[in-house]
Amino acid sequence: MVGITLSGTQALRMLMNDQKLLNFLLEYITPERKAKFDAVLNRRTRHLTVVLEDIFQPHNASAVLRSCDLTGVQDVHIIENNYVYDINPDVVVGSTKWLNLYKYNEQPNNTIQAFEALRNNGYRIVATSPHQDGYTPETLPLDKPLALVFGTEKTGLSDYALEHADDFVRIPMVGFTESFNISVSAALLLYTLSSRLHTSDIRWQLSCDEKDELLLQWCRNTIKRVEVLEETFRKRFG
Fold it and tell me: Is the pLDDT reported for residue 3 higher than 80?
């Protein structure tokens, strides 16, 4: 697929049109819902992101998304090498419409493509594994954006993911069981790391443009028959 390069003028025009559309759609959002959107956006972050490699159990896949939403993590990267990612609507409780999901499923080893994309966006790759010496949730450095990579419960992360990670993180355990399941691990890690971020001097918040982009996305996802309103907007404002 050939990418399209926009000039600065074209990009600015698109941004202005999106802003006009957002202002138009906000007229159909209650003040209470708008206040909730603003409160959530102020706690959203891309400083942390989650990467799921071959997670196929619907319950676990869904629970991780729910934890991302509840801890303010906006983006989830889904690697489908051997299994298709599936979610359980009873567990996810609508959280997918508040998150951005990115799937990698076009290559023989999609982990390579995912890691390259994340590094190009400034992320350090952190593999989660109980079998590797590494940081704990309390000691993992947060000065750079982190991509936390989780593997399937049955086999864990792939050899490629383990060999090409920048760092490792593990949750200390004191019982007989080998490890927490993936949904519990994700919840514990995300809660601890996001709590640390919120009390740090690190600039973890979204930019104003990112907030507006998400606000437009959320309006579109929640307004009934939004396509009719958008058609009205195009006719009115061209």
Answer: no
Rounded distance, CA 83 to CA 42, Å? 35
Q: What does pTM read for this prediction?
A: 0.89
Q: What letter represents residue 16's amino acid?
A: M
CATH fold label, 44-218: Alpha/beta knot (3.40.1280)
**pLDDT tens string 12-48:** 455 568 899 999 999 999 999 999 999 999 999 999 9
